Amino acid sequence: MTDQNDILFERARAVIPGGVNSPVRAFKAVGGTPRFIQRAQGAYFWDANDKRYIDYIGSWGPMILGHGHPAVIEAVQKAVLEGFSYGAPTEREIELAEAILALVPSMEMVRLVSSGTEAAMSALRLARGATGRKTIVKFEGCYHGHADALLVKAGSGLATFGNPTSAGVPPEVVQHTLVLEYNNLQQLEEAFALHGSDIACLMIEAIAGNMNFVRATPAFAKRCRELCTQHGALLIFDEVMTGFRVGLHGAQGVLGITPDLTVLGKVIGGGMPLAAFGGPRAIMEQLAPLGPVYQAGTLSGNPVATACGLATLKEISKPGFYEALAQKTRTLVDGLKAAAAAEGQPFNADSEGGMFGFFLMNELPQNYATVMTTDNAQFNALFHGLLDRGVYIAPALYEAGFVSAAHSEDDIAATIAAARDIFRKR
Ligand code: HOZ
């Protein structure tokens, strides 16, 4: 065996379940050996064979500036020299909180945590604590991390609650989770009509990034807001993926909707473990130490992570940043569409800011079930074709893609050319 990725995968599988620390990295959906990354710079990373890839996962979203941005490296290096972790408050946490609140007007207060899962789980507890209600509404295909109550698939009918999607989650734990079809207005209306007074919150990825890239229609998102207000439930936007990614003000800025609580992650840490949740003062003050809803963390507001996040937010707040990023992402998406059309392949794609998705079908899906009708074998062939040609997209058809400020016109053109070559040979 001479392939270094194969060698590392074999070693990894001996000591780490599946050889990876997060399942999708194992390439199980697409087959083959995961690439073990040894370094990254700008729009590229290099695997254990020193093969270079144009990186369209960007650590699943955080690397919006590309890898190794000089201003971010400088901030992190300075912070590291001052200490890794104190378990006591710092001025930098205040600075980051102030920076986030200035950019997300729906948030009056924010709590910093370490991962998106933790942020979503805490927002959920806060919503239940603040409303005194148990029921939560989520949508099939929206992923909010791996907290027990959120690992749920739809039950057998609308009025029934969900079933666990993971072993180790007792049915009792998800008995208050209602799972609805994304963009299905009728189901949404019925759910609130039946359960409205019990609903603590409705949690949604308003631009979903965990069933590839699927938008909530403006009418659907608006109705989510109206029904929550009408029934005294909290509307939670999970913006772990979309926050500072689809635009400077997230999906809520794109849709013009004000959620009650917002869950953030990924870009706010610039690649370091950092996430957050926040909302109006009256709700956030329900959290310990002020209120009865408990939440805590040794690494919350970590000084190195906050330095990385602050430096990243400073760069992306510069005038014109999102216009340029969105234009570049559109060029990629339009180029892929044109390449597929030229070779007579069913294909469609969409993007917002620096986030995109493509589908091997002519329509843009509106929900998870439609996304999952994608031809898996065709997707896998495209994935491996791109990988061979030095282009790394997410190794599963239900994931979104990410473009960074470091991707050049040449990178985009090379990606489109690689895809066209694959389409042609089909
Ligand atoms: N949560 C990511 C998929 N939507 C995967 C994260 C990772 O493997 O790094």
Automatic annotation (TrEMBL):
<dbReference type="InterPro" id="IPR049704">
    <property type="entry name" value="Aminotrans_3_PPA_site"/>
</dbReference>
<dbReference type="InterPro" id="IPR015422">
    <property type="entry name" value="PyrdxlP-dep_Trfase_small"/>
</dbReference>
<protein>
    <recommendedName>
        <fullName>Glutamate-1-semialdehyde 2,1-aminomutase</fullName>
        <ecNumber>5.4.3.8</ecNumber>
    </recommendedName>
</protein>
<dbReference type="GO" id="GO:0030170">
    <property type="term" value="F:pyridoxal phosphate binding"/>
</dbReference>
<keyword id="KW-0963">Cytoplasm</keyword>
<dbReference type="GO" id="GO:0042286">
    <property type="term" value="F:glutamate-1-semialdehyde 2,1-aminomutase activity"/>
</dbReference>
<comment type="subunit">
    <text>Homodimer.</text>
</comment>
<feature type="modified residue" description="N6-(pyridoxal phosphate)lysine">
    <location>
        <position position="266"/>
    </location>
</feature>
<dbReference type="GO" id="GO:0008483">
    <property type="term" value="F:transaminase activity"/>
</dbReference>
<keyword id="KW-0627">Porphyrin biosynthesis</keyword>
<dbReference type="Pfam" id="PF00202">
    <property type="entry name" value="Aminotran_3"/>
</dbReference>
<comment type="pathway">
    <text>Porphyrin-containing compound metabolism; protoporphyrin-IX biosynthesis; 5-aminolevulinate from L-glutamyl-tRNA(Glu): step 2/2.</text>
</comment>
<dbReference type="InterPro" id="IPR015424">
    <property type="entry name" value="PyrdxlP-dep_Trfase"/>
</dbReference>
<keyword id="KW-0413">Isomerase</keyword>
<dbReference type="GO" id="GO:0006782">
    <property type="term" value="P:protoporphyrinogen IX biosynthetic process"/>
</dbReference>
<dbReference type="GO" id="GO:0005737">
    <property type="term" value="C:cytoplasm"/>
</dbReference>
<dbReference type="InterPro" id="IPR004639">
    <property type="entry name" value="4pyrrol_synth_GluAld_NH2Trfase"/>
</dbReference>
<keyword id="KW-0663">Pyridoxal phosphate</keyword>
<comment type="similarity">
    <text>Belongs to the class-III pyridoxal-phosphate-dependent aminotransferase family. HemL subfamily.</text>
</comment>
<dbReference type="InterPro" id="IPR005814">
    <property type="entry name" value="Aminotrans_3"/>
</dbReference>
<dbReference type="InterPro" id="IPR015421">
    <property type="entry name" value="PyrdxlP-dep_Trfase_major"/>
</dbReference>
